[in-house]
Each structure stands twice: as structure tokens, then as C-alpha cells.
Amino acid sequence: MWKRIHKFLVFLIGIVGTIAAVSDQMEQWKDKKRFPENRHVPFGFYEQFVKRPLDCIVSMLALIVLSPVIAVVAIFVRIKLGTPVIFTQERPGKNEQIFKLYKFRTMTNERGADGELLPDDNRLTVFGKWLRASSLDELPELWNIFKGDMSLIGPRPLLVEYLPRYNDRQRHRHDVRQGLTGLAQANGRNSLSWEEKFEDDVNYVDKITFLGDVKIIIKTIGIVLQRTGISSETSETMETFMGSGEEEKGD
User: Fold this and answer.
1) Which among 98, 115, 184, 228 is least buried, having the fewest CB atoms inside 10 angstroms?
2) What are the boundaries of each domain within the chain?
3) 60 or 121: which carries more pLDDT confidence?
């Protein structure tokens, strides 16, 4: 029985990997037609032919293996924070194309006397902080990765409103799929300034390698276990990127 299951999984992984590889090549061809000015050239064989199939296979297996964890987290979110359990928000991805990001909610819908939502810091509960610290709130993004909206490793998808605020160099972070984690997260998460984050993002985009992705995964695991870099110096999350070096509280 186990041999049959193993053979089936190997076959399924092969099929999924092949479909993902072909689909990604077709998407790259379409991107060249839609965005002839696209300046990004894949660094090597891994980025061009392996990264997307690997993303698809790993995210599929992770969704299967972690399904009990996802179910338990969903139940606790429902009990402690209410509905909807899944927080969705439009984010810009590769070539600044907009997609719907999925995360577990970490804040309540508490409103002030004026009917407006309270500031993020007021709505972020102890349980919500724990979800963010453990990165369990990011688990639904595995579906984004499987769909092809995102990658396991890449610049984090930020707010749509930030798009016009990037300078020419910072815009390069959108030359590739956005990631569940990235070089900036491995180097300090929200303890870094926006300028440091964007520099890490662009440096990653310039040279994507298998070994580099493995190193980022290992460093990210260490940061998550140590629960460091969750907050900036002045916010429970991260100040809003205002462009031109100006920042205020948000996201």
C-alpha cells in the first residue's frame, strides 16, 4: 500500500512540476509581449526553469502536510478574532500585476465612537501578535504560491498604494514574483528601514540562485524561531512607506 502511495506521489509531483514549468515558460513569453520594456533577465537555469516548478511542488506538499495545522489555526482565529477567518487584500505582484493575497486575520474589527476602525496597534490582540511572531498567519499564502501569484522566496508583496512611491531602482523588486519570505526578511524583517529592505529586494532580484534561496529559508526559520524583527522601532508592525524617506504608521 505504501509503495503505491509513494509511486502515486512521485507521479503527481512529476505531473505538477511539468505543468508548472510549461505554464511558467508560457507566462514568460506572454510577459515579454505585454511588457517589452521588462528589464529582468533570469540569472541562470535555476531561476528560469526550476524555481517555479519547485515552488508549485513544495507549496502543494506543504498544503497537504500542514492541513491539520491550518485547520486548527483557522478554528482559533474564528474563536478569538471572529470572521472572516481569512484576510484578503489586493497586492501588486510580478510586473506590478494585482492579485488577491490570502492571510489569517490577526486584528479585530473594533471601531471607535465615530464608527471608524481603530488604529492597527489597538486592534492587534495578544493572539494576533503571536500569529505574526510565529508567521502562522502567512500559511494561506501557500495557496498563492501554488496558483502562481507568488514564490516561496522573493520580495514581500506590499500595498498597491506604494507603487507610485518607488524610485526607478526600487521598482525592480517587481521584476519577479513576490515571496512568502525574502532576503530582507532573512536579514531582519521589520527591524530594517524601508531603504534597507528595498536594497535587499533588488539585490535578490539581480542574482537568484538555488543556494541563495536555501540560505534565505534557513535564516528565516532562525528569525521566526527567535521571534525577532516583528516590529519596527515605532510600530507594532511597520511604518507606512511614504516615499522620499518619509514614513508614518501603518501596514
Assistant:
1) 115
2) 44-250
3) 60
